[in-house]
Design a protein that fits this description.
Bound molecules: iron/sulfur cluster
Radius of gyration of chain B: 22 Å
Distance between the termini of chain B: 61 Å
Helix content of chain B: 25-40%
Distance between the termini of chain A: 34 Å
Structural class of chain A: alpha/beta
Largest interface: A-B, 53 and 72 residues
Shape of chain B: globular
Number of helices of chain A: 8
Strand content of chain A: 15-25%
Oligomer: heterodimer
Chain lengths: ~200, ~475
């Protein structure tokens, strides 16, 4: 997994609560069997008009946001379907971090698994930043995971909390499966205790 | 002996599956059952291959095809070549790893959350995962059952374990008697309306109260299914006699010699008196009406005698914006009575309401009547077994005589990955679980309702209280 330490980039504001994964990547794009190539379909139904033409109004279709790498958005981002394609699409488009007051549980996990930093900031700070991001074109921020800060140039904008384990995994780009496999003995022991006489359990 | 402190159902299942625990890190939980389907598994198998890993316990996995299979004639080839590839990849993966697959022509095929219980694979006290958020359904049996992403699917394939932070335990206690004609779907929609779509984030909900004990297994599944719509990690209901009786004589259920032993074990799966939930919500359901969603998330819901709310009256700016946006998308004006809204389509099906009792309820209401001339209505059974049983009972003939289409089993228009979709602007009364923008087809307008409300609405061509028929 690609580690995440420090990232500076253009902030794309998307002021809406409860953005679900059906919006992030609509179902018609879930048929691929690979992890790549979803960026073009990110927010597809918002980015395109009925019929397929580009919707020039949508933020990610406008300069300088076409190259944005930090998404700033409303609470409960990524609710709904468990599709990891949502995290893949955001990354494939070029996003490295999503800042929001809160995230849906499965989405946050999926983001973690892909080195996409899903960072919760206080709601009031998000509101303030959203207002500024819409006003100033563009707002550029730095997310520093080691320090747990968001800064603008050298000016501190916000501090955030993240649990140490998530932080370590992101910083190191850890292979989570490898981490679990270190417990292979404990897993085998568990299985032996659980089904002493029944290797087949179903 | 020191008496252990009173614990919740969640704690009990959690502790029973704890493989390893390190301070600061998520707990490592053992997974008893891993369900797989065609849309979220391919990349996981690919990941395994790249890393040179294998499936640790193929015997604890079960796969089926449900999301993008056609629900029309199964003898015809799948026209959508990409969907076909996805199904073929699952077939290859299942075969090469020795995983049991209920393929499209198998009589046990169906929506993964319908067939798990139906086949007796889902059992009390289990930890069950699947790359699908509605895995919460299986919590109806007193299992801890939750949806995971594809990287986690890979993780479980490789290790049969899942690292998880212990979620908080939330009790939703339903008080009062269930009014006549109120379905499990109405209960859960009202709960989501009350708690909000993120209200249970970070929590596992346990549904309690006398009403819950009186629900059938299928009704319990409808409720647990939509726990994710309140943001919960999972939903669960303590197992009881209803649960045990359901599990007798299922094809993959416990064999009869083990049954009594297991039952004794299962009977301990309840929240002890005095155990403390992190949060409790009490709801009185005594006055509940049939529920209809009006917006673009399942929390935007109201009673059928109500009307479209006025966003101007909402104080929270973000909620007001969402409501305004939703009404624009849905093409609705504040104040419009729900029962005056005409509909174009009716969809009965999905892992929420595609089971036998749901179909029986619809058949009871439409029997001998005709679907309104301006409505296109469809019934898609949740599994091939449901379909077969419905046909044995003659429900299919009731549906077709009334003007419903009768289809093969699958997710169908719940997600619209197969050809079953809404066109832009079409309004649908749907027994599914998500009314997100575009969920059933771009520009399509979905209203979530119970099977009974869907049936009454199909006949009238506009939202109709099923109790008034
Ligand atoms: S029926 Fe709908 S919600 Fe259920 S598994 Fe299928 S797509 Fe998901």
């Amino acid at each position: 997994m690609e580690p995440f330490r420090l990232h500076t980039g253009v902030v794309a504001p998307l002021d809406q609560a409860d953005i679900d994964t059906d919006q992030i990547i609509p179902k018609q794009f879930l048929k691929s069997v690979s992890r790549e190539g979803y960026g073009d379909f990110l927010f597809h139904d918002w980015r395109t008009e009925e019929g397929g033409a580009i919707n020039p109004e949508f933020i990610l279709n406008r300069e300088p946001y076409k190259g944005a790498s930090i998404l700033l958005t409303g609470r409960n981002f990524g609710c709904g379907s468990s599709r990891e394609h949502a995290a893949w699409a955001l990354k494939d488009f070029g996003f490295r971090a999503v800042l929001a007051p809160s995230f849906a549980d499965i989405f946050r996990e999926n983001a973690d698994q892909n080195g996409l930093a899903a960072i919760s900031l206080e709601e009031s700070i998000v509101r303030e930043l959203l207002a500024r991001a819409y006003r100033e074109e563009p707002l550029s921020l730095t997310v520093d995971l080691e320090q747990c800060t968001v800064a603008e140039s050298d000016k501190l904008v916000a501090c955030f909390e993240i649990d140490d384990f998530r932080k370590m995994c992101l910083l190191e780009g850890l292979d989570r499966i490898g981490l679990t496999l270190r417990q292979a003995e404990a897993i085998s022991l568990f299985e032996q205790q659980r089904w002493p006489n029944r290797p087949e359990s179903l | 002996m020191i008496a252990s402190p009173p614990s919740t159902l969640l704690d009990k299942i959690w502790n029973n599956h704890l493989v390893h625990s390190d301070p600061g890190a998520p707990d490592l939980l053992y997974v008893d059952l891993h369900l797989l389907h065609e849309v979220t598994s391919a990349q996981a198998f690919e990941g395994l291959k790249v890393a040179g890993r294998t499936v640790r316990r193929p015997d604890l996995c079960m796969a089926t095809v449900d999301h993008n299979i056609p629900t029309t004639d199964r003898s015809l080839p799948v026209l959508d070549s990409i969907a076909r590839v996805q199904m073929e990849v699952l077939r290859e993966n299942a075969q090469s790893h020795g995983i049991r697959l209920f393929d499209v022509d198998d009589e046990r095929q169906g929506i993964v959350h319908v067939i798990g219980p139906e086949l007796g694979l889902t059992r009390p006290g289990m930890v069950i995962v699947c790359g699908d958020s509605h895995t919460s359904t299986h919590g109806a049996f007193g299992a801890l059952s939750f949806g995971i992403g594809t990287s986690e699917v890979e993780h479980v394939l490789a290790t049969q374990c899942i690292p998880q932070r212990r979620p908080k335990a939330m009790e939703i206690r339903l008080e009062g008697d269930r009014p006549v004609g109120i379905s499990a779907k109405d209960l859960i929609l009202a709960i989501i309306g009350e708690v909000g779509v993120a209200g249970a984030a970070g929590h596992v909900i346990e549904y309690t109260g006398p009403v819950v004990g009186s629900l059938s297994m299928e009704e319990r599944m409808t409720i647990c299914n939509m726990s994710i719509e309140a943001g919960a990690r999972a939903g669960m209901i303590s197992p009881d006699t209803t649960t045990f009786e359901y599990l007798r004589d299922r094809e993959f259920g416990p064999n009869s010699n083990d049954f009594d032993d297991l039952k004794t074990e299962w009977e301990t799966l309840e929240t002890d008196d005095g155990a403390i939930f992190d949060r409790s919500v009490v709801m009185d359901i005594g006055d509940l009406e049939p529920q209809v969603t009006w917006g673009t998330n399942p929390g935007m819901v109201t009673g059928i005698s109500g009307g479209i709310p006025n966003p101007d009256k909402i104080e929270d700016e973000e909620i007001r914006d969402s409501a305004e946006r939703a009404l624009k998308y849905m093409g609705l004006e504040p104040g419009t009575p729900i029962e005056s809204i005409n509909i174009d389509r009716v969809f009965v099906g999905s892992c929420t309401n595609g089971r036998l009792e749901d179909l029986r309820e619809v058949a009871r209401i439409v029997n001998g009547k005709r679907v309104h001339s301006s409505v296109h209505a469809m019934v898609v059974p949740g599994s091939t077994a449901v379909r077969r049983q419905a046909e044995l009972e003659g429900l299919d003939r009731v549906f077709t005589a009334a003007g419903f289409e009768w289809r093969e089993a699958g997710c169908s228009m719940c997600i619209g990955m197969n050809p079953d979709t809404l066109s832009a602007g079409e309004r649908c009364a749907s027994t599914t679980n998500r009314n997100f923008e575009g969920r059933q087809g771009r520009g399509g307008r979905t209203h979530l309702v119970s099977p009974a409300t869907a049936a009454a609405t199909a006949l009238a061509g506009r939202f109709t209280d099923p109790r008034s028929g």
